[in-house]
């Protein structure tokens, strides 16, 4: 237990230990006039009296409410200070901060869910959004395949805050594009033609809703759509030969912009 010096008060070190703050904190409060020791030893060292300790305890109590030192000084030194009003204002500020933190927690939860699962919708919501032919397992497969890539992170960042209606609109845009691709293939439109190039650009714009995609990256996608059994089955299921035709179309569209498809890389 701290001992009093000459029965007049406690030293700075003993006071700091008693109330649970640092000596530096007491020195700071002394310097700004918030809590100044009232007594001194014969050698001139400052001592905290019982009244000083009471003030320090009040400072600690109000500091625990989150009040700043200037506000605490006003509460303790201004006889006309409305302590209740000051505390109520602090409660309101705290409530606003709690609401901000709750919104932040909600955003973090959504982003974590999107990073982990891709599309932050339940299986039933995904079926209602993308149609009965949609398999929710696709998201898990995509996460396993590309989860460490920057594009997956970009996809998740966008997916986290996309509404169900926005998902429906995006799904509809992609479905419409695929039907249009099948239609022009059936109509004999050749890769490299203005109509085919327009569809390739439309695909790049829609796909960029998931993550930014350059023309070189689109060429790489075209290769994958043709070579990957799952993607090829999807496109050829819409129209026989569509996977290869689309890859050729993307290649020709890239060539029209000065890109050699054979040299295109994921960048």
Explain this structure.
- The protein contains 13 helices and two strands; from the N terminus they run ααββααααααααααα.
- The protein is mainly α.
- Helix 9 runs antiparallel to helix 10 (194-207) and helix 11 (215-227) packs across helix 12 (229-238).
- The N and C termini lie far apart (69 Å).
- The model has no long low-confidence stretch (mean pLDDT 91).
Give the structure's gist in a few sentences.
It is built from 13 helices and two strands, in the order H-H-E-E-H-H-H-H-H-H-H-H-H-H-H.
Features:
single chain, 267 residues, mainly alpha, 13 helices, 1% strand, rod-shaped
Number of helices: 13
The number of strands is 2
The helicity comes to: 55-70%
Instruction: Report the sheet with the most strands, covering strand number, pairing sense and barrel closure.
Output: 2 strands, antiparallel
Order of H and E elements: HHEEHHHHHHHHHHH
Question: How does the helix and strand content classify structurally?
Answer: mainly alpha
Strand order of the largest sheet: 1-2
Average pLDDT, rounded to a whole number, is 91
Unreliable segments of 5+ consecutive residues: none
How far apart are the termini?
69 Å
Radius of gyration: 34 Å
Please state the overall shape, judged from the principal axes of the Cα atoms.
rod-shaped
Strand content: under 5%
Topology diagram in text:
Blueprint: H1 12-19, H2 23-31, E1 39-40, E2 46-47, H3 50-63, H4 69-77, H5 83-117, H6 123-130, H7 137-146, H8 150-159, H9 164-186, H10 194-207, H11 215-227, H12 229-238, H13 242-256
Helix pairs in contact: 1-2, 3-4, 5-8, 9-10, 10-13, 11-12, 11-13
């Amino acid at each position: 237990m701290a001992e009093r010096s000459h029965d007049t008060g406690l030293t700075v070190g003993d006071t700091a230990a008693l109330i649970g703050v640092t000596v530096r904190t007491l020195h700071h409060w002394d310097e700004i006039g918030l809590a100044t020791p009232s007594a001194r030893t014969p050698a001139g060292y400052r001592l905290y009296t019982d009244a000083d300790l009471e003030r320090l305890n009040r400072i600690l109590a109000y500091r625990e409410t989150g009040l700043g030192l200037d506000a605490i000084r006003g509460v303790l030194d201004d006889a006309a200070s409305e302590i209740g009003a000051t505390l109520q204002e602090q409660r309101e500020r705290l409530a606003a901060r709690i609401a901000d933190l709750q919104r932040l927690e909600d955003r973090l939860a959504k982003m974590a869910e999107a990073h982990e699962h891709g599309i932050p919708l339940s299986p039933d919501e995904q079926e209602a959004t993308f149609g009965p032919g949609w398999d929710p397992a696709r998201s898990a497969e995509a996460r396993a395949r590309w989860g460490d890539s920057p594009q997956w992170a970009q996809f998740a960042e966008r997916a986290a805050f996309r509404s169900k209606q926005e998902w429906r609109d995006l799904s509809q845009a992609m479905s419409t594009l695929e039907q249009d691709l099948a239609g022009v293939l059936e109509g004999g439109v050749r890769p490299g033609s203005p109509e085919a190039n327009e569809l390739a650009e439309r695909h790049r714009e829609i796909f960029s809703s998931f993550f930014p995609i350059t023309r070189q990256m689109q060429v790489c996608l075209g290769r994958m759509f043709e070579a990957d059994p799952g993607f090829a089955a999807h496109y050829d299921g819409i129209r026989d030969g569509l996977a290869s035709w689309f890859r050729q179309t993307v290649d020709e569209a890239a060539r029209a912009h000065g890109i050699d498809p054979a040299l295109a890389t994921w960048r």
